[in-house]
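Raw record, unedited: N-acetyltransferase
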Amino acid sequence: MRACSAMSITLRPATPDDLPFRVALHNALIPEFPTTLAEVSRHDAGRRADFAFGRWIAEEGGRPLGQGLYTHQEWMYHPQKFFVDVKVRPEAQGRGVGQRLWAHLESEVRALGAQKLFASVREDHGRGVRFLQERGFGVEQREREAALTLAQAPLGGLDAALERVRAQGYTLSTFAGFADPDRERKLYAFDEAASRDVPRPNEEMYVFPTLERYWQHLNSNPDRDDSLWFVALKDGELVGLSQLNPVKARPEMLGTGFTAVARAHRRRGLALALKLTALSEARRRGYLQVRTSNDDTNAPMIAINTALGFQEEPAWLWMTRKELD
C-alpha cells in the first residue's frame, strides 16, 4: 500500500454527488447494519435546517477516502452539544486521514462553543475505540446488540402469554388494525411517556418532537409496515408497543423498534406477549432473523430477549468528551 502524507489529503464540503461514496463507506465499515442510497437520501432530507451541521470529505488526488461530520441531535438537543463522527475507508486507515478530518471537526465545534461531544463506535472496532480514547472520549453508555435466528426461536409460550394478558382485560392488535380515528395521537402520547424511561447518557435531557414532527419522521419511511407494529390495548387506550421494521438492504431481516409498556401496566406479562406475537408473525412471513438493541442497564428487557433466544453480539459504545480546552 502506497503511503500518503497529510499534505496530500485535502478536505472539502460534502455534496449530493458524494451519496454513493457515503453508502459504500458505511457498508464497508458496518456490514452488519447496511444502508441504501434511498435511506441515506431520506435521512438527509429529514434533517432539521435550523440545526448546526457540517460534513466534509477527505480525498487524495480526487479520490474520496473518508468523511467527518458534526451535528446537533434532535432527540437529545442542546445548542452546545454535538454528535461527531469520522469514517475512513478500510484500506486508507492508519494514513492520517482520520487525524486530518478530526482536526477540522474539532476546530469547527470549538468555534460553535461546544461543551460536550458524543460519538458511537462498536466495541470490537479496536482502532475506532482507540481513536476516540486518544482524543479524550470515555464510555458513557453501552448498547447491547443481539440477534435471533427465527427458525430456532422458542416461541411455544405464545398461547399461554396471550391467555394471561387477555384474562386481565387486554387486547393485542397490530397498529394497522387499531381502528381508532385518534390512533396517531394515542401512539404519540404513549411513545412520549414511555420514552422518559429510556436510559440515556448522564445529565442529558430527552427532547421529544412535536406531534407534527413525530409523524413527519414516521411517514417519510416508505418501508414502514404497520402490520408489524403490535400494540396492547385496554379500555381503548394504547398501553404497550412492540415494533418490527423491515431492513431494506437485508430483506431477510427485521430490526426491532421501540418495545415498551406504560408504567401503570408493567409486570403483567404484556412485553412478553407482544414480543412473542411479533416474532411469531415474523417467522410466519418467512423472515429469517430479528436484531435488537438494549441499554446495558435495561435488565428486564434483556432477560426477555435472552429467554426468547437472542444471542448477544458486540455492543455499541456511546462515548463522550466534555473538556474541549
